[in-house]
Amino acid sequence: MRDADQKKLDEILNKYNGAEGFLIQLLLDLQSEFNWIPREAVSELSERLKIPCSQIFRIASFYKAMSLNPIGKHKISVCMGTACQVRGAQKILDLTESKLKVKQGETTPDMNFTLKRVNCLGCCAIGPVIVVDDDYHGRVASEKVDKILRQYD
Ligand code: FES
User: Fold this and answer.
1) Which range of residues forms the domain containing residue 100?
2) pTM of the prediction?
3) Structural domain ending residue among the three candidates 40, 62, 84
4) What is the DSSP letter of 75?
5) Given a cut of 90, is residue 133 above it in pLDDT?
6) Pocket around ligand 1: residues whose beta carbon is below 6 Å from it?
7) 33-90 pLDDT tens trace
């Protein structure tokens, strides 16, 4: 863990002064600060609060608002619903994976993007569709992918 991250982690842990009753709030704060809950944070939390790591992982896995895997600054969803697939979504997904050098479900090493394939986004008429954060990009052609990604670099 980088020094800056360790400092942020310490600040969050100190805020609750080792009180076990604040575990969920503490995990939410970690999620909010790092955009995920790093394993090092879970270990430190476990040590300080004397709670087994397995219990912390169980809680963090239960809540949808928490992630135990790194999530990039920008979330890209490529629609793989039937209507988008018919219009070439697989090619768009392959191209996006190749440009970002990650597979769907993964995060780029610079933590800028997390790529996911999703089912119908409810706007089939403009397929194939890519959503970056809350921005919908419709009728995405292969040559548009690079331009879309560069907007979020
Ligand atoms: S199938 Fe892609 S938006 Fe519906």
Assistant:
1) 74-150
2) 0.75
3) 62
4) E
5) yes
6) 79, 81-84, 120-124, 127, 129
7) 888 898 988 998 899 888 999 999 999 999 988 999 888 999 999 999 999 999 999 9
Instruction: Return the residue whose CA atom lies nearest to atom 1 of ligand 1.
Output: 81
Cβ atoms of 78 and 91 within 8 Å: the answer is no
Measure the CA–CA gap between 98 and 110, rounded to whole angstroms.
16
Sorted by sequence, the CB contacts under 8 Å of residue 11 that are 6+ apart come out as none
Same domain, residue pair 23 and 84:
no
Q: Which atom of ligand 1 is nearest to the CA of 126?
A: 3
pLDDT at 1 over 90: no
Question: 91 and 34: one domain?
Answer: no
Does residue 112 fall inside a structural domain? yes
Of ligand 1's atoms, which has the minimum distance to the CA of residue 82? 1
Residue 83's domain is classified under what CATH number? 3.40.30.10
Token pair for residue 64? Answer: 């949808």
Matching residue, tokens 């610079």: 110
Q: How far is the CA of 123 from the centre of ligand 1 (A)?
A: 6
Q: Are residues 82 and 126 in the same domain?
A: yes
The ligand 1 atom at the shortest distance from the C-alpha of residue 121 is 3
Domain count, the chain: 2
